[in-house]
């Protein structure tokens, strides 16, 4: 996940043998601009010609990649004339490999990724709009909200796999020792001031070792996760407001930067926070070095329970020096008096085209494959593995026989956050979205890493972002408050 996933996340490889849109037999000689749809609407079983659909897929859930061979067999059993060629990739390699292929003009037909990457790939001209090829049965299988995340303008660029909330995670024992009413927080939320005081209480020094109140992974690309999740709860749910003005020039952004730095200055977070990556963050949580961790996904409850079972069985594969942990899902705090707007991660199966326009038949086959991966028993198995809510009726039905051991309090916490989730914004023009991603990559991430490391002040970072934003969007294209 961006997972990003995530998470709103890992681990595998891609050969350059992946061919665009299943090979030359699935393309026409003419080309059309990105997002243009000229093929007639596809219908199931419209062609019996042999075709291969390629897919680049990371380890979406703990058991996901173990099912690739069976997925391919099941797909061909359903569509005897079609072959689903799945290429595994690690989370670490996924983006680079996909970008390399896109830049070469030969992306896979399907690639798993965050819906927030759609503007970038759309601008590069190789995303495939499947609006005219997705059948009503496919569309109606979905809940409306997550499907909206796979859209840009009027185009639909794939199918979502899940809709998850980026939360925080707490150690139940430590929360209760600090006097924190975690059940109330789960269903009512908390303000930054309340959160700040809570994580201060979570700082404990025993036998010369410090347990921190809060640790968040910020090394590398994870830095933008921390800032982005908190910004949504600070009155800036998106990089652009409803008037399409860049939002991070708001005074709320400066206030947020000051608050996030304050947690380190308080001693509630380690001064070496800039060196904490996702793996170290989770290790610190399981070994009792922090009371609250972030970012947290529902699947972390499952991961903690798995490690607890290993400890109980004296299994040597348990995390070294770890302790039993009851994992508690917690919402991120709100800042600057803003209403809660919890960060959702909608990852899914993006559909790509090569430089040549795909035939109507090949386009329909790609849609069949993407929907096959995103629905039914495949979606049920993946989402159950992730402790994620099911977003298709077919997935929900297939999951009825799959039993999972999940805390009802954690389910209630996720429900609270989903009810206050950040809505999708398909109205943001592609060029603005791409510029925002570029500004984030080139300015926000390195400056925020400097802020976390104590190398620059919140004011200095804010001015740098403001200057870059005005250069990118113009003086009238940014928020002034």
Secondary structure blueprint with pairings:
Elements (H helix, E strand, L loop, with lengths): L50 E7 L10 H11 L3 E7 L2 H13 L6 E5 L3 H6 L12 H5 L3 H5 L2 E2 L2 E2 L1 E8 L1 E5 H6 L4 H7 L3 H10 L2 E3 L2 E8 L5 H11 L18 H15 L12 H9 L3 E7 L2 H14 L14 E4 L13 E8 L8 H15 L1 H11 L6 H6 L9 H12 L10 H23 L5 H16 L8
Parallel strand pairs: 1-2, 1-3, 9-10
Antiparallel strand pairs: 3-12, 4-5, 6-12, 7-10, 7-11, 8-9
Pfam families: SBP_bac_1 (PF01547)
Organism: Paenibacillus alginolyticus
Protein name: Extracellular solute-binding protein
Question: How would you describe this structure to a colleague?
Answer:
This protein is α/β, with parallel strands linked by helices. It has two domains: 20-163 and 346-419, Periplasmic binding protein-like II (D-Maltodextrin-Binding Protein, domain 2); 167-330, Periplasmic binding protein-like II (D-Maltodextrin-Binding Protein, domain 2, 3-Layer(aba) Sandwich), CATH 3.40.190.10. The chain contains 18 helices and twelve strands. The strands form three sheets. It has a five-stranded mixed beta sheet with strand order 2-1-3-12-6. Helix 7 (182-188) runs parallel beside helix 16 (408-419) and helix 10 (251-265) packs antiparallel against helix 18. The longest helix is centred in the last third of the chain and has 23 residues, at 430-452. The two termini are 34 Å apart. Mean pLDDT is 89; it is low at 1-45. Residues 1-22 form the signal peptide.
């Amino acid at each position: 996940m961006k997972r990003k996933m995530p998470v709103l996340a890992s681990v595998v490889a891609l050969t350059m043998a992946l061919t665009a849109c299943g090979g030359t037999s699935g393309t026409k000689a003419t080309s059309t601009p990105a997002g243009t749809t000229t093929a007639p609407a596809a219908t199931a079983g419209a062609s019996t010609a042999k075709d291969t659909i390629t897919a680049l897929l990371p380890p979406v859930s703990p058991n996901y990649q173990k099912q690739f061979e069976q997925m391919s067999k099941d797909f061909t059993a359903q569509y005897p004339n079609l072959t689903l060629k799945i290429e595994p990739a690690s989370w670490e390699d996924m983006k680079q490999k996909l970008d390399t292929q896109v830049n070469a003009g030969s992306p896979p037909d399907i690639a798993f990724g965050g819906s927030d990457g759609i503007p970038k790939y759309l601008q590069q001209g190789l995303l495939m709009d499947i609006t005219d090829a997705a059948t009503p049965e496919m569309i109606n299988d979905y809940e409306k909200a997550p499907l909206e995340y796979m859209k840009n303008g009027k185009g639909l660029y794939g199918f979502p796999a899940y809709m998850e909330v980026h939360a925080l995670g707490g150690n139940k024992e430590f929360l209760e020792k600090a006097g924190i009413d975690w059940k109330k927080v789960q269903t009512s939320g908390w303000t930054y001031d309340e959160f700040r005081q809570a994580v201060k209480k979570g700082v404990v020094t025993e036998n010369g070792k410090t347990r921190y109140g809060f640790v968040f992974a910020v090394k590398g690309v994870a830095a933008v996760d921390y800032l982005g999740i908190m910004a949504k709860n600070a009155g800036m749910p998106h990089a652009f407001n409803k008037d399409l003005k860049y939002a991070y020039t708001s005074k709320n952004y400066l206030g947020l930067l000051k608050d996030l730095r304050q947690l380190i200055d308080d001693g509630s977070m380690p001064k070496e926070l800039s060196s904490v990556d996702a793996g170290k963050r989770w290790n610190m949580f399981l070994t009792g070095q922090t009371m609250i961790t972030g970012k947290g996904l529902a699947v972390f409850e499952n991961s903690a329970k798995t490690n607890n079972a290993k400890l109980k069985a004296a299994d040597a594969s348990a995390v070294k020096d770890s302790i039993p942990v009851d994992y508690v899902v917690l919402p991120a705090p709100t800042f600057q008096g803003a209403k809660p707007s919890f960060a959702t991660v909608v990852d899914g199966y993006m559909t790509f085209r090569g430089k040549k326009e795909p035939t109507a038949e090949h386009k329909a086959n790609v849609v069949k494959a993407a929907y096959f991966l995103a629905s039914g028993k495949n979606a049920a198995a993946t989402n159950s593995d992730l402790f994620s809510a099911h977003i298709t009726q077919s997935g929900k039905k297939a999951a009825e026989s799959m039993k999972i051991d999940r805390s009802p309090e954690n389910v209630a916490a996720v429900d609270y956050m989903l009810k206050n989730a950040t809505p999708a914004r398909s109205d943001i023009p592609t060029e603005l979205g791409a510029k925002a991603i570029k500004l984030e990559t080139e300015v926000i991430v390195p400056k925020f890493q400097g802020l976390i490391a104590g190398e620059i002040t919140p004011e200095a970072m804010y001015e740098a972002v403001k200057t870059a934003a005005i250069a990118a969007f113009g003086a009238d294209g940014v928020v002034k408050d």
